[in-house]
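Minutes, structural biology subgroup

Action item carried over from last meeting: produce the C-alpha cell record for Amidase (Halorubrum laminariae). EB confirmed the sequence was re-checked against the source entry. Recorded below for completeness.
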Amino acid sequence: MLYQEPLADVADALRSGRIDPEAHVDELEERAAEVDPEIESLVAEDGRWERLRADAAALAERYPDPADRPALYGVPVGVKDIFHVDGFQTRAGSDLPPEAITGDEAAAVTALRRAGALVLGKTVTTEFAHMSPGPTRNPHDTDRTPGGSSSGSAAAVAAGLCPVAFGTQTIGSVIRPAAFCGIVGYKPSFGRISTEGVIPLSESVDHVGIFTQDTAGVSLAAPLLCDSWRTLPAPTETPTIGVPAGPYLEQASDLALDAFEDHLDELDAAEYDIVRVDAMADIDAINERHQRLVAADAAVAHEEWYREYGERYAEETSELIAEGLEATMETVAVGRRSRGELRGDLTDLMDEHGIDLWIAPAAPGPAPEGIDSTGDPIMNLPWTHAGLPTVTVPASETDDGLPLGVQFAGRFDADEDVIRWSHGIADAFSAD
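Output recorded by EB:
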C-alpha cells in the first residue's frame, strides 16, 4: 500500500513537463480508488477528480512556459479539515453545521496555491483537532491508528495520495502521526507559519505543520510557508545532539527506549557528537500546565459554538471545554509564562553544553492497535509547549514492520538550521 512519491521529485517533474498535471490527476484517481477505501484518509467529496482536472487544465493554460512555473506547479496537497479552503466546506471532524464554522481561506493554503499547488481535498481529522478519531487507518497496518489529530494528512502522504499535506500540532499531532506512518513531519517555531483561517484549539500553542515523504520535501515547502525565511548554505559540519536524560525520556516505552539507544549508536557511527544532559526534571508539572492551558484556550475558542451546539460535540471535546470553563486567568497566565520559561531553560542547557539539536523518540512506541485512540502525544508535548522547531524522521522498524521515528528540536526561530541538518540525520538512519 505504501508508495514513494517525494515532493521535490514530483514538483520537478511537473514543472519541467515530464509529467502533465492532468495526467497526474488521472494517476492519483487510480491510486485513490485502490488504497483510500482501506485507509479512509480523505473527506468525501463529490466531483473531486473532475474539479482537479479542471484546476490542472487552468494551471497549464496559465503557465505554458516551464521556465515561468512556480515551485509547486500542479502538486496535489492534502488539507486537514480544520483549515478553511475557498470552495470547500469545513467540518472539522464534527457534527456542527458547516455553515456555522466555515470561514475565509487559511493563509497557509493560499500560500501553497500561489506556489501552484492543487488542493487534493480535505483530509480526516479528529473532532476540532482534539480527540474522537475518524475512520482513518495506518497504511502500514490497517488495524492500527495513523496517529492524530492530523490522521488523514499523515496517512495520505504515507500512501502516496499526495506528496505534501497540512497538519496542526497542539500537543503532538504532526510529529507523532509522522512517526507512526513512517514519513517526515515538520512543526515550525511557534508563529513562523500563520494559523490564520485555521479553527483554533489553543491559540497559545497551536502550530501549523506539514507532512512529506522526505526531508527534501520539507526544504521545498517550508520557505513558501514560513515567515521571513532565510536561505542558508548546506552545513559543513554535523550538529552536536543533546539527549534530554531524566523523567521526560522515561515516559517512552522500553521498546522505544531500546530502539532509541540503537538510533543514537547509528548517529555516533555517523560521527555525530552525542551529549547526555539532565533536562526537564519537572516534566509532570510541564505536562499539567500545558494541558490546563489548552483546555482554557479551547473554552474561549469554542464558547459561542458550544453554547449553541453543545449537544453535538463529542464527549472528549465537551470534557475539555468544561474543564476550560472552570479555568482562571491565573491558569492561563501560568501556562503562558511556563512556555517562555521552558524555552529559556532548554536554550540555556544548549548554550552550556554546546548543543545544536535535542533528540528524543517521536512517540512512546509504535502505532498502537485499534483506531479508537490515536496514541499518546506525551513525547511531543514539551517541544510544543516551548514552541521550538521540530522535525521527525523515520529511524527504524519494529520486528512487525511498524515504523519508529525520532524527533529533533532546535533553537527557537532557527527552523532553517533544523531543516538543513535534517537531511544528514535522515541519511544516517537510511544508510545500509
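Discussion: The chain has a mean pLDDT of 97.
Next step: EB to file the record with the rest of the batch.
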